[in-house]
Amino acid sequence: MKHYLYRHIRLDKNEPFYVGIGTKQRNSHNSFISEYKRGFSKRNRSKYWKNIINKTKYEVEILVESDDYDFIKEKEIEFITLHGRRDLGKGTLVNMTDGGDGIINIIYTEERKRKAVNSRKGYTHSEETRRKISKANKGIKHSAEHMRKLEEGRAKTRSKPILQYGVDGKFIKEWESATEAANYFNTHYCAIRQCTQNKIHTAGGYVWKDKINNFIPQTIECAPKMKSLKKHWDIKERLSRGININNISITLI
User: With the C-alpha atoms ordered 105, 110, 112, 116, is the resulting torsion angle positive or negative?
Assistant: First the structure.
């Protein structure tokens, strides 16, 4: 039998406090403890497990053995359900999951989350690791669907909500991103972005502004002799005409 299910029993209360899975060690049959090494090991245990063994002695009980690992995992789930998890208020076990694959119904404490984040701060891969990653990814061809989803994910991460106004200053609609609006009006998203940055007056026949830096565009009347307006005015020329380029849209009459 290759795999086994074990149980730890605290002797002060004569009750189980942990259920786990182990794999027999090859060529380690000199003693019962060496053969069932994981069951007797104190390494890689939770602080709750260590708190118990610091208070009392305990014994290790081998419950089930089998070559079928899936069967052992099923039994682990059964025994954890039988004795109940202490963190869920259902029993005496200090197991942090429901068993099986080790991550079922796991509950991460705030301390554990903080440690996980701090452990990765400032971490960078070595040149050797980068070279291996690069080599492993070479020649991999992703499907068109996969590439589309990647691009959608990137766009969603970069997207900023924008607001659409008419040239008369009336609010029309809010869009999730410039790309979404550009696709709808069959124009380039860069034009809409330039409009939100006040580099051009309109895009697709509308005025566009970032939602975060929102304002209500004002409408001014130009002199009757002005029958047309160049698409791109020089900034100095705008200022010389007394036009505030940051908060207006222009309607010709």
Answer: positive
The mean pLDDT of 205-217, rounded to a whole number, is 74
pLDDT tens digits for range 131-149: 888 888 787 777 888 888 8
Cα 74-78-83 angle, rounded to 5 deg: 150
CA 120 to chain centre: 15
- Its pTM stands at 0.44
> Would you say 162 and 210 are in contact if contact means Cβ atoms under 8 Å apart?
yes
Residue 227: name the closest of 253, 209, 194 by CA.
253
Closest to 252 in 3D by CA, of 228, 216, 218: 228
Report in angstroms the alpha-carbon separations of 28 from 8, 227, 252: 21, 95, 90
* Percentages of the chain per state (helix, strand, coil), in multiples of 5: 35, 20, 45
Q: Among candidates 225, 226, 218, 224, which has minimal Cα distance to 243? A: 218
The Cα 44–Cα 49 span in angstroms is 10
Q: Determine the pLDDT at residue 178.
A: 86
Residue 81: pLDDT band (50, 70, 90) is very high
Q: Which helix (H) or strand (E) holds 221?
A: strand 218-221
133 touches 140 (CB < 8 A): no
Backbone torsions φ then ψ of 23, nearest 5 degrees: -120, 130
